[in-house]
Design a protein that fits this description.
heterodimer, A: alpha+beta, Jelly Rolls, 4-stranded antiparallel beta sheet, 7 helices, 8 strands, B: about 350 residues, mainly alpha, about 90% helix
């Protein structure tokens, strides 16, 4: 209660504590809460970008676009031409896969992505890439995305950062290819077993 | 659902409102729009050099400042050289004009005699006097408008580099800020179009400048070898008018041929001049244009002619120059809309 009394009596702080100086050092330290909301700090926690140095993340963040989406809003739709690769800054995103012929109808819920996850990586690599799934905001979310034109500029301006980004994208794509191959192998095995049973 | 629909509607409304406002500024405030457009075109041309300087380790502002200083230093010398040269050609032209008037008068007299001899119809001096009166009235109006034109020219001369400097130093942040206003559902497509359009515009302007230089140099050299006066001025005229598609070469050629005709008559020099212009334009049409320009802006000739006519209708000579990039942009937009609504895999 002593502090409230001091405030009510309009007593000033003791001279020994220099609040503004403390505040300066607190905010200048980028490992503390002052920089928590910034994009480079967020990118530091993204698993895919763990091979980046702090300076490379700072450069990458200059090329990122910040977008906000409300609940249920479509980020991109299956079959559309895509040019962007997104990181989830806050909120969550659901990825829906539909029938190739009528992508919008009968879309089936598949994956839910959270903060620090990324999606849409194929658009950076393919020319005239068509989105293979629909991405929708599951709740109000903030995304940061890099787009093909910016990647082209980055390749010219900061080739090392661009190479690191493409390496990260390649890792994501390779993991996905590995999983898909394993899935196909399983399916083939089950199919052959099923055929054997049928023939017997 | 309705929350994001209302939000998106608001975003669309604001975005379209901004587009209409910028178009209105471009149309009703040419004093602002022309230096902005010129600065933007120069920005597209100069940007690769600034990016190269940035790669060498300069910051964006340092690179831009360095480039501005070097451009100023580089431009001062040729201007100092060119001014006395152009001045001397203009002095010669000043002597030449009264002579040309005499030649026109003499030819007119011969024509009048010939028509009178063949048909018995006397044309009198009315035609030539009428045309002289209208010509002097035209020159008078040009002379009256000259101070205001010079004032706005000087204004552009100071304002354009200023805009250019800010485009070069803060263009990226400004682009990101504008792109933030684009509604989510059309963001990727708009960004892609914006990028394609910028690339096409930059490439097109570069190609046109190279084309104008090639044509200008060919004609200057040809006329200089043929011993025609004002070879340099006529070459510059041919190069500059060449920027206007299809109509440009004719605009550059007709006054030049009239000069040669008045100065040297219908002798070998005139034939040489006709040949030089024909060969230069043939090389331009057959080699330079297909290799340089049409690969960048793939428009049908009819579309090119229609857009040049429309451009001249609304914005005069400037409209003729900018009509092709605008037509290319409209084509990009049209293809995008077509793919959205008419292609087989559209929703």
């Amino acid at each position: 209660m002593g502090y409230e009394n001091d405030v009510q009596e309009k007593k000033e702080n003791p001279e020994k504590i220099d609040i503004s100086l403390l505040k300066f050092f607190w905010q200048a330290n980028n490992r503390l809460s002052g920089n928590e909301g910034t994009i480079p700090r967020f990118l530091r926690s993204v698993d895919v970008l763990k091979n980046f140095t702090d300076d490379q993340l700072r450069i990458l963040s200059k090329y990122l676009h910040y977008r906000t989406f409300t609940e249920g809003e479509t980020i991109f739709a299956q079959g559309e031409i895509g040019i962007g690769f997104y990181f989830i800054f806050s909120g969550s995103v659901r990825i829906l896969f539909g029938d190739e012929s009528v992508p919008q109808k009968n879309a089936e819920f598949k994956i839910c992505l959270e903060r620090y996850n990324c999606f849409g990586e194929l658009a950076l690599l393919q020319k005239g890439s068509l989105r293979s799934a629909t991405a929708q905001a599951d709740e109000p979310c903030e995304l940061v995305g890099i787009f093909k034109p910016d990647l082209d500029e980055m390749i010219n301006q900061h080739p090392v950062v661009a190479a690191r980004l493409l390496q990260s994208v390649a890792v994501v794509v390779t993991n996905r290819l590995f999983n898909t191959t394993r899935e196909v192998k399983n399916l083939k095995h089950r199919l052959s077993q099923f055929e054997k049973k049928e023939s017997v | 659902m309705s929350v994001f629909l209302a939000r998106e509607k608001g975003q669309y409304f604001f975005f379209i409102f901004l587009c209409i406002c910028s178009l209105a500024v471009a149309y009703f405030l040419p004093r602002l729009a022309i230096p902005l457009c010129v600065a933007y075109v120069l920005y597209l041309l100069i940007l690769p050099i600034v990016l190269w300087l940035e790669r060498l380790g300069f910051s964006r502002t340092q690179g831009t400042a360095l480039l501005f200083l070097s451009l100023t230093a580089l431009l001062i010398y040729p201007i100092m050289i060119a001014i006395p040269f152009v001045n001397s050609e203009f002095v010669v032209l000043q002597d030449f004009l009264p002579r040309a008037q005499d030649v026109v008068g003499a030819k007119y007299e011969i024509l009048r005699q010939a028509i009178y001899g063949r048909t018995g119809f006397d044309m009198g001096d009315r035609f030539i006097q009428d045309s002289l009166v209208s010509l002097s009235a035209y020159f008078k109006s040009v002379a009256l408008r000259l101070p205001s034109f010079l004032a706005s020219f000087l204004e552009w001369l100071f304002v354009t580099p200023l805009f250019l400097f800010f485009f070069l130093t803060g263009g990226r942040d400004f682009k990101f800020m504008i792109m933030r206003l684009v509604p989510n559902s059309i963001f990727e497509r708009t960004y892609h179009l914006f990028y394609q359009f910028n690339k096409q515009l930059g490439d097109y302007i570069m190609a046109k400048i190279v084309e104008a230089l090639i044509v200008g140099v060919m004609i200057t050299l040809g006329l200089w070898i043929a011993g025609v006066n004002f070879a340099f001025l006529l070459g510059v005229l041919a190069g500059v008018t060449n920027i206007i598609p299809y109509v440009g070469p004719v605009l550059g050629m007709v006054p030049a041929l009239l000069f040669v005709l008045a100065e040297y008559g219908t002798g070998s020099t005139f034939v040489a001049a006709v040949l030089i212009y024909s060969i230069a334009n043939a090389i331009d049409i057959a080699i330079v244009f297909p290799v340089l320009v049409s690969k960048i802006v793939d428009l049908h000739p009819v579309v090119v002619i229609i857009s040049v006519i429309l451009g001249s209708q609304f914005f005069g000579v400037m409209g003729m120059v900018i009509s092709i990039p605008i037509a290319a942009a409209v084509k990009l937009l049209f293809i995008e809309i077509y793919q959205e609504f008419y292609s087989l895999d559209s929703k």
